[in-house]
Amino acid sequence: MTTVRVGQHPAVRGRTGRRPGNPDTRQAILDAAAGEFARSGYGGATMRGIAAAAGVDTALLHHYWGSKNALFMAAVQAPIDPADIARRLAQGEISDLGRRLLSTLLEQWESPAGPALLALVRSALGDASTARMLREFVVSQVVVKLLRTYRVPDDEAALRGALVVSQVLGVITARYVVGVEPLASLPPEAVVAAVAPTLQRYIDGDVTGAGG
Amino acid sequence: MTTVRVGQHPAVRGRTGRRPGNPDTRQAILDAAAGEFARSGYGGATMRGIAAAAGVDTALLHHYWGSKNALFMAAVQAPIDPADIARRLAQGEISDLGRRLLSTLLEQWESPAGPALLALVRSALGDASTARMLREFVVSQVVVKLLRTYRVPDDEAALRGALVVSQVLGVITARYVVGVEPLASLPPEAVVAAVAPTLQRYIDGDVTGAGG
After folding, report:
1. Which of A36, A134, A195, B175 has CA atoms 20 to 30 A from the CA of A4?
2. Could you tell me if B160 and B152 are in contact, meaning their C-beta atoms sit under 8 angstroms apart?
3. Chain A residue with minimal CA distance to B144?
4. Half-sphere exposure of B53 (CA within 13 A, CB side)
5. What is the tens place of the pLDDT at every residue in A75-101?
6. In chain A, where are the structural domains located?
7. Do B198 and A167 touch (CB under 8 A)?
């Protein structure tokens, strides 16, 4: 772990009002963050621990990224902001959430951010520590949080969220990583038509086999 | 590619009646097969081409493995025989196929063959040529063939098969590769209760969003 000493706190801005900070310091913090997230998972890593590992003050992390969430996204080089997407998804009825979730996701994958998303998923599939930090972030910070804004009971949200992730991950993997035809070349609307009802059942339908 | 000359056709058996053949020759054929399957996919690779690449007679391949299917399974070191599993799954009603498919699959993953299956999936996720040969084999030789034994129309079988693969791959990846909780530690029966209805809809339900 590289220890970096910061000569001047970048919060002390010069006259231009724009001072992005020492790029080496930022990178050292991002490296430390990636290491801590990989070691302790999203929930276990702390801003204080990351700052200590990078040899800087915790305030500097807040200054640069504002939140652990934003620091995480920067550390894993995520090309999209899932928290922002989750906020957009939280507008609308729960009865339609499966369709909106999948449409929005496919939009991201078909956008210029697609290749970077693919790289991120590939590294999570190939490396246990990346898998650990991403799964925890995506499941608890994005999907389960989203379900809770729709008042899905706490004791159901974790399983429902994991089931949603299983089908979403399956579509992403089959369509973009492994390239299973005809799924890989189907227009997004057709994928949504086929798969959204699955997500909707996982969100608010019966997932216990009890019927209903 | 190693070229191997075979001095004596192993079909000419000795008195013991058991002659597994020259292990070096077998291995050279398996290596050649893995190369050909990776290059040309399951459908594109031929017994003749593999024999030529290994520098042996095609009859030797049939002698050792009996079929391209069996040679493929040996070349990818598959710990289970999907063709055999597909045959067992073909016994029973289509209305129950989703449940039987998932139960059987989870049984295999929880069996001593599990770690080898995981290794195979990991290598398919990490390597495009392994992904190519496995996806083609699993989709067209196992899943779509199974759907056809239930007289699912040809023009629907490919999409239905790919959707089944998307959810199965998603469960496998979430449960065994990435370890998404609580899915990773749920008893198999609970996974089946939650996910089998998805597979059943992909098999014989509406997948066009037209309703029904």
Report:
1. A134
2. yes
3. A181
4. 22
5. 888 778 877 888 889 999 999 999 999
6. 23-75, 82-204
7. yes
Q: Do A173 and B174 touch (CB under 8 A)?
A: no
A178·B139 Cβ contact <8 A? no
**Reported ipTM:** 0.79
Q: Span A119-145, mean pLDDT? A: 83
**Which residue stretches of chain B have pLDDT < 50?**
1-20, 212
Q: Spell out a b/e string for B4-31, using b for 16 or more CB atoms within 10 Å of the CB, else e.
A: bebeeebeeeeeeeeeebeeebbebbbb
Q: Each residue of A141-163: pLDDT tens digit?
A: 888 889 999 999 988 999 999 99
**Tokens coding A73:** 């996204």
Looking at residue A129, its pLDDT comes to 79
pLDDT tens profile A1-48: 433 333 344 443 333 333 446 778 999 999 999 888 877 878 788 999
Task: Give the residue on B whose Cα is nearest the Cα of A126.
Answer: B126
* B82-204 has CATH 1.10.357.10 classification: yes
Do A135 and B170 count as a contact with CB atoms less than 8 A apart?
no
Domain A23-75 fold: Arc Repressor Mutant, subunit A (1.10.10)
d(CA B167, CA A170): 5
Q: Using the structure block, give the residue that is written with the tokens 């030529």.
A: B52
Helix axes B97-110, B82-89, angle to 10 degrees: 140
Residues of A near B (Cβ–Cβ under 8 Å) read 122, 124-126, 131-132, 134-135, 139, 158-159, 162-163, 165-171, 173-175, 177-183, 186, 190, 192-198, 201-202, 207-209
A170 and B175 within 8 Å at the Cβ level: the answer is no
What separation in angstroms does the CA of B184 have from each of A172, B106, B114, B123, B151? Answer: 19, 12, 14, 20, 34
SS3 of residue A209 by DSSP: coil
Higher pLDDT, B74 or A210: B74
Please answer yes or no on whether A167 and B162 come within 8 Å at the CB atom.
no
- Residue ranges of the alpha helices (H) in A66-153? 68-75, 82-89, 97-110, 114-126, 128-136, 144-149
Q: Closest Cα to residue B77, out of B144, B140, B133?
A: B133
CA angle B209-B167-A43, nearest 5°? 115
pLDDT computed for residue A54 by the predictor: 95
Q: What is the pLDDT of residue A211?
A: 62
